[in-house]
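Hypothesis: this fold can be encoded by more than one sequence.
Test: take the structure tokens below, design a sequence, compare later.
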């Protein structure tokens, strides 16, 4: 599989989009930057405050595209099990979004963005959630969405925008330090850097899953997720590090914001 062409569609109507993220800062600030500075959509973030409270934070309006709105919401805690164990918390957010912003979640694209954190996220829980959250719009469950991991952390995406990652052998705890040391700032990412990040994403997917077509599997992503998880665990067992690979951009591909033309030989 080779990439023939990459297009960014910045004027596409994406409707309502909801991201649930584990981080209180990095993921929220990164998504805010990408959606407001690169793609120019309306944006709102909601952060958790205390045990059962949340607060509305940043809000960015765009008169040129008022029908495309992105909501980024901090999950109950950073443990991935919170996705399946915090229905009351998520239900409260859904209710507030409907009552205050007329957002019907049945019509929204929903994504869960988490790190592959070995210290707090059990493999069996991740596998079960991948089977459950395999489609951004219709999972036939009350709380649907698509689970997208970053191996080992969201910083993999930032790094991939700046450099090739195939020879990056960093332990999970050193990713933030590496980004800081290299001065890889998310707010300096532009369209060319995003394209570089897409190429790194597909290089990784081609390494582990050379015969899989991402577009063909977007409606049923569980098989891709589970196969990739297995390959990353094998890679970790061999090298004691994960291959730097963030699936964040899969959500942009799913929304039609990024189009990748592939050639299979």
């Amino acid at each position: 599989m080779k990439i023939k062409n990459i297009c960014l569609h910045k004027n596409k109507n994406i409707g309502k989009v909801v991201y649930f993220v584990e981080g209180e800062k990095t993921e929220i600030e990164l998504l805010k930057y990408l959606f407001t500075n690169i793609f120019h959509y309306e944006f709102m973030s909601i952060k958790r405050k205390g045990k059962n409270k949340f607060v509305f934070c940043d809000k960015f309006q765009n008169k040129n595209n008022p029908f495309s709105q992105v909501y980024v919401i901090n999950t109950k805690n950073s443990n991935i099990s919170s996705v399946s164990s915090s229905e009351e918390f998520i239900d409260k957010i859904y209710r507030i979004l409907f009552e205050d912003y007329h957002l019907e979640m049945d019509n929204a694209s929903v994504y869960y963005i988490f790190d592959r954190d070995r210290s707090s996220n059990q493999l069996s829980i991740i596998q079960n959630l991948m089977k459950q959250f395999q489609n951004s719009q219709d999972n036939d469950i009350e709380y649907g969405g698509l689970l997208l991991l970053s191996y080992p952390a969201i910083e993999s995406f930032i790094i991939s925008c700046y450099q090739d990652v195939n020879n990056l052998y960093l332990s999970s705890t050193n990713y933030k330090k590496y980004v800081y040391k290299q001065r890889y700032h998310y707010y300096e990412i532009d369209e060319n850097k995003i394209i570089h990040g897409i190429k790194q994403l597909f290089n990784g997917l081609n390494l582990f899953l050379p015969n899989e077509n991402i577009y063909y599997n977007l409606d049923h992503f569980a098989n891709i997720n589970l196969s990739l998880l297995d390959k990353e665990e094998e890679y970790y067992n061999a090298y004691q590090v994960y291959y730097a690979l963030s699936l964040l951009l899969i959500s942009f591909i799913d929304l039609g914001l990024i189009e990748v033309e592939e050639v299979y030989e």
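The two ends are 6 Å apart (CA to CA). The longest helix spans residues 191-208.
Hypothesis status: open.
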